[in-house]
Amino acid sequence: MIERPETAVPSIARNLEGYVGFANLPNQVYRKSVKRGFEFTLMVVGESGLGKSTLINSLFLTDLYSKDYPGPSQRVKKTVQVEQSKVLIKEGGVQLTLTIVDTPGFGDAVDNSNCWQPVINYIDSKCEDFLNAESRVNRRSMPDNRVHCCLYFIAPSGHGLKPLDIEFMKRLHDKVNVIPLIAKADTLTPEECQLFKKQIMKEIQEHKIKIYEFPDTEDDEDNRLIRKIKEKMPLAVVGSNVVVEVNGKKVRGRQYPWGVAEVENGEHCDFTVLRNMLIRTHMQDLKDVTNNVHYENYRSKKLAAVTCNGVDTSKTKGQLTKSPLAQMEEERREHVMKMKKMEAEMEQVFEMKVKEKKQKLKDSEAELERRHEQMKRNLEAQYKELEEKRRVFEEEKNNWETQQRILEQQKLDASKTMEKNKKKGKIF
Amino acid sequence: MASTEIARQAGEGVRSVPLAGHVGFDSMPDQLVNKSVNRGFCFNILCVGETGLGKSTLMDTLFNTKFEGEPTQHSQPGVTLKSNTYELQESNVRLKLTVVNTVGFGDQINKEDSYKSIVEFIDTQFEAYLQEELKIKRTLHSYHDTRIHACLYFIAPTGHSLKSLDLVTMKKLDSKVNIIPIVAKSDAISKSELAKFKIKITSELVSNGVQIYQFPTDDESVAEINSTMNSHLPFAVVGSTEEVKLGNKMVKARQYPWGTVQVENENHCDFVKLREMLIRVNMEDLREQTHTRHYELYRRCKLEEMGFKDTDPDSKPFSLQETYEAKRNEFMGELQKKEEEMRQMFVQRVKEKEAELKEAEKELHDKFDRLKKLHQDEKKKLEEKKKGLDDEVNTFKQKKTAAELLLNQAQQAGGATTLKRDKERKNFF
After folding, report:
1. Of A117, A128, A410, B128, whose CA is between 20 and 30 Å from A391?
2. What is the Cα–Cα distance from B334 to B365, expressed in whole angstroms?
3. Which CATH number does the domain housing residue B88 bear?
4. B205: left (phi over 0), alpha (psi -120 to 50) or beta
């Protein structure tokens, strides 16, 4: 469902006091859209022989595939191909460029692993084309070749979905609008068909396959119709290229010995439901869902891959709401901040180391100073000691010398007196 | 896309096939219209004109309702833009109308920069849309489009010619928005003067290369009326929300002593023409032109400014991814380079500082080596002195010992001699 969130711009309701005329806007839109013309791309997928080409011809009441333009069924394919045919059809002044994409060879091989890959590749490449066209600097008209709807044909086994069916739908349900159809429904009785449909829907739910959902409208009448359609899903269809006469009327149908299975008879099959839904009421919605949901999914995945290259994925969750350019801008700012921080950190580390070194230098200077001081003091002490020693020595020396002198003097005096005495003494 | 697209496809070989019955896709336009009606429409009008030209009154008259706003004074210091959004409904059609008014336009003495805030405003709306369009997860289908779809340029009813401010402003705006010039308060001009005035205005616009909005003539259903209207441009309008009784009806009019100017009388003014063209016939085209022409031009310029360009048509088609990756790589490369540079610078600084500190360390060691040497010298001197002293002490000691010995000997000898003497003496006696 397309959501319509509240817009942030505050608006004031006003009543009009007279006819202004913008009620004519829808007409203007109508006029312009008719002038522009419409486009629609429909893809049909299913095994060979399920009546895909016939159904297309019946849907559009034309011989899309004819003798001049043979359909893919006429050509035997070895591998899965994806082919497109484009036609222009006009009705009631409205021009529609219809592209039918066929997948011949799908499911026909013995080993069908990856047979969905060419289909996925095709769908993605159309989205890629649109993305590139949308992203150009010089944008011209952008033709919309994206696949708007994929009709998936289920073989009328009556039992349930085949593994290939499940696998295919699971892989494509978020890339394109998938509408499953029961092909060649004229091989099932109504009861068998009912059971088959129930079984299929059950399996679809079990495998969480998201098939195209009809949007609810505001109109109750429409809603009732939509609910009726939903009950009939998947639609069981019959196609025919042949017109037969039934009760005087010319109708498209398949002639059997036991009667005619009419294509457009609601009691015979759901063909009319399909046509009404696909073409008359929901064609625009199919295009809108393709544009707003499937294409946007593709685009956001693609762009997220570009901008998140090499970026840690845990950061990217919140970044998806920005454009890649804003993203780069923000990365730039982040980087500048990171650089600033780094610079500040480096600066800090640098300062710290310098401080450390300086401190060490200072310490060692202080240490050396101290040692020098000590040695100096040591030396001074020793000097003092020496001085003291000298002083003591000097004193001693002086004392002794004085003593000696006294002794000398005494001796001298003694010898003098002895001399005297001698002189004296010797007389008697 | 015009019908030329279909023609081109037909020319390209898309074959046309006949239908054998009614398929039913002729309901496509209805489907489209239903969806648009459900979504609601939005339309944004910008009114540019001097204060007092009746812009707000005209809006009220056009939309038959009273919008917000007090009449502004002439004393605004600059041009500001005031925008108001209204939700209107007519039958089942919901319209989100935004009316943007230029406040203070033409009131300043120096009007050189008057157009700037208007251009800025318009660009801001384009930018907002562009940003939304470029987002990774975007919601364009529910985006409230604020881009200006129509610009009503109010020309003062001087009767002579366009003012230079008008020419300058319109020239700056014509590549950004659909300009619809209107002569305001045209009940001040007489019929003959008006005809001359219109001719003068148109010729001045042409000679100055101003591109005003032309009502489209490519759709047959409206080509005729549009081309007629194109020749009536600029529309001379009168606005009024007051009603006057005329006959047995109440009509919107302005009452003068000499008569009543009826707003919706086509002989009196072009109001009805304006309403017809702006709202009833070409509203969708105005929106389309804004998106496909003016917005695209803005977008192209902006992207080119940022360095994006399409690869030439011969090489591979333009891949958004590749460009983004290339830009991103360039950008990352730049950042890494810057980072490297910064690292280098730091390494350099560290080296220098280390060298410095090593120098200091060396000096310190040198200093202390010197001091050590000095100290060694001192020590040596001290040692020498010590030795000197020791020598002296030794000499002294020797002397002392020698002297003592001598003394002893002398004493002994003296003792002996004294003894001898004594003995002699004794003997003598």
Report:
1. A410
2. 46
3. 3.40.50.300
4. alpha
Q: Which residue has the higher pLDDT, B170 or A316?
A: B170
**What is the distance between the alpha carbons of residues B134 and B125, in angstroms, rounded to a whole number?**
14
CATH class of A25-307: alpha beta
In a domain, B2, yes or no: no
Instruction: Please name the residue of chain A whose CA is at the shortest distance from the CA of residue B319.
Output: A132
Is residue B73 domain-resident?
yes
pTM: 0.71
**For residue A247, is it left (φ>0), alpha (ψ between -120 and 50) or beta?**
left
Interchain contact, A14 vs B67, CB within 8 Å: yes
Q: Which of A33, A129, A324 sits opposite B136 (nearest CB)?
A: A324
- Residue A300: predicted pLDDT: 86
Distance from CA of B292 to the nearest CA of A (A): 9
The count of domains in chain B is 2
Same domain membership, residue B287 and residue B335: no
Which of B16, B25, B289, B409 is the best residue to mutate to test the A interface, defined by the most A CB atoms within 10 Å of its own CB? B25
A342-362 pLDDT, tens digit per residue, is 888 888 888 888 888 888 888
Looking at per-residue confidence, does B338 or A148 come out higher? A148
- Which of A42, A124, A130, A136 to substitute to test the interface with B, most B CBs within 10 Å? A136
Mean pLDDT of B213-225: 87
Cβ of B357 within 8 Å of Cβ of A361? The answer is: yes
Q: CA-nearest residue of chain B to A219?
A: B38
Residues B390, B285 share a domain: no
Residue B49 lies in a domain: yes
- The full DSSP string for A375-407 is HHHHHHHHHHHHHHHHHHHHHHHHHHHHHHHHH
Q: Which residue of A has its CA nearest to B378?
A: A379
Do B131 and A342 count as a contact with CB atoms less than 8 A apart? no
What gap in Å lies between CA B43 and CA B97, rounded to an integer? 5
B353 and B300 assigned to the same domain: no
- The alpha carbon of A297 is separated from its chain's Cα centroid by a whole number of angstroms, namely 9
How many beta carbons lie within 10 A of that of residue A389, not counting itself?
Answer: 14
Answer yes or no: do B67 and B115 share one domain. yes
Phi, psi of B183 (to 5 degrees): -90, 115
A361–B368 CB contact, under 8 Å: no
3-state secondary structure of A244: strand
| pLDDT tens digits, B106-164 | 888 887 788 888 999 999 999 999 888 888 888 888 888 899 999 999 999 888 888 88
Tell me whether residues B2 and A34 touch, CB distance under 8 A. Answer: no
Does B331 lie in the same domain as B297?
no
- Residue numbers of B between 213 and 242 with CB closer than 8 Å to A: 218-219, 221-222
* Smallest CA–CA distance from B336 into chain A, residue: A335
Q: Is residue B58 part of a domain?
A: yes
Nearest CA in chain B to A350: B350
Q: How far is A110 from chain B (nearest CA, A)?
A: 36
Closest in A29, A95, A342 to B32, CB measured: A29
Residue at token pair 């439901």: A273
Q: Are residues B288 and B351 in the same domain?
A: no
> Looking at residues A294-308, what average pLDDT do you find?
80
Q: How far apart are CA B243 and CA B264, in angstroms?
A: 11
Per-residue buried b or exposed e for A402-427, using 16+ beta carbons within 10 Å of the residue's own CB? eebeeeeeeeeeeeeebeeeeeeeee
Q: Per DSSP, what are the bridge partners of residue B236?
A: B183
Same structural domain for residues B122 and B56? yes
Dihedrals phi, psi of A179, to nearest 5 degrees: -120, 110
Query: Which residues 257-276 of B have a C-beta within 8 angstroms of A?
Result: 275-276
B375 shares its domain with B272: no
Which pLDDT does position A38 carry in this prediction?
A: 92
A89, β-bridge pairs = A96
**In chain B, residues 174-213 whose CB comes closer than 8 Å to chain A:** none
